[in-house]
Amino acid sequence: MTGSSARPDGRLNVRARRPAKLVVAFGLLAALSAALWVAPPAGAQEGVGHAEAVGDGPPGVVHLTFDDGPDQLFTPVLLDVLDRHGVRATFFPLGRNLERRWGSDEIQDLLNRGHALGNHSIHHRQLTKEHPWRVAADLDEASALLASLSGFRPGCYRAPYGDRNATVDEVAGSLGLVHVAWTADPQEWRNPWVPVVVDYLVGERHDGSVVLLHDRKWLSLHIVEEVVPRFLADGWRFDVVPDCRPPGEREARMATRTPGDVPVGRIEAIVEVSDELSRGVAVVGWAYDADRPDGGLVVRAALDGDRVVDVATTGPDHGFAVTIEGAVTLPLCLWAVNAGTVRHDSSLGCHRPGPVPDWQPPAG
Ligand SMILES: [Zn+2]
User: Fold this and answer.
1) Which of 214, 318, 344, 351 is catalytic?
2) Which domain holds residue 185?
3) Would you tell me how many other CB atoms lie within 10 Å of the CB of residue 191?
């Protein structure tokens, strides 16, 4: 089940490892956290939906997207599969499925793990065949539903069947929604042979490419299991679609919590640190529990396979920054320990180090 406190399977490592040591570092960490807490502009990256360069060029970022969920069985399994590989994706759940199947805890769990959300309408109608007021009503209702569960209205949408025109875009734009198209569609509803899908996706990958999949299909799980390790081994990375991260997400999500609720949070950056004296990973993020309104929430990590250690405590602004020194099992899995009175610790997902994010030192 999603959000359980059970640790993912740590890779058993017979080799003895140097114990990890926790050091709160300044310098890089301070710079990282300053940059990240100033909230980089959403959509700063270009390239999503622009498919000029097709083909297998130098490694870049690929965006996995999953439409039409949530599914009671496949979506939670998919979230665990993505965590096991330490990759992030963007979900376009269908309003009518969401209404019946998921509440705020499930949506916050998806966001806690670092994934992003977009609007895929309530009814999955072909929007170009609808009167503009019906398009507006459908998309607006879906955004309101997502906001009721997540705390914020989505910044992106995907038209059902990708079917849109200038009128649909104008209506969506008036609701603050940027369209997210795809550059590769394996058509898993045709039940293709998975090796053929892998070859196809390798041939279509380029920096900023967007892969369309569906978390209501079991074959999507199989495709992810094959494609993700292959891409990672070739040096490719996976990240959410930048347009689907609206500003103010953190505060809006925090506002959904009341005392007794499970915590919310997110890992903002994880960076490999290596010099002559030490090596490890620097982690910057935030976590919030309404039972600890002044901070002091414990963040826990799985180190060296099955060893679980408290690595950080949130500050008064609910942020944390820590360098975990030593041999760190990757992907690194973290939790916000439930300071509330009931239920489980919140998974903050499992993560691979990425590049140092771009940032500007604060002026003055
Ligand atoms: Zn769809």
Assistant:
1) 214
2) 26-244
3) 10
Helix axes 218-233, 74-85, angle to 10 degrees: 10
For residue 309, the SS3 value is strand
358 included as an active-site residue? no
Please check the confidence at residue 76 and state whether its pLDDT lies above 50.
yes
Dump the DSSP string for 33-71.
HHHHHT-PPTT-S--TT--SS-S--S--EEEEEEES---
**What is this structure's pTM?**
0.86
**156 plus 267 within the same structural domain:** no
Query: Annotated catalytic, 306?
Result: no
Q: Is 62 helix (H, G, I), strand (E, B) or coil?
A: strand
The CA distances from residue 331 to 10, 132, 136, 225, 351, in Å, are: 10, 45, 41, 15, 5
Query: Of 244, 279, 308, which residue is a domain's last?
Result: 244
**Cβ 208 vs Cβ 182: under 8 Å:** no
pLDDT of residue 305: 67
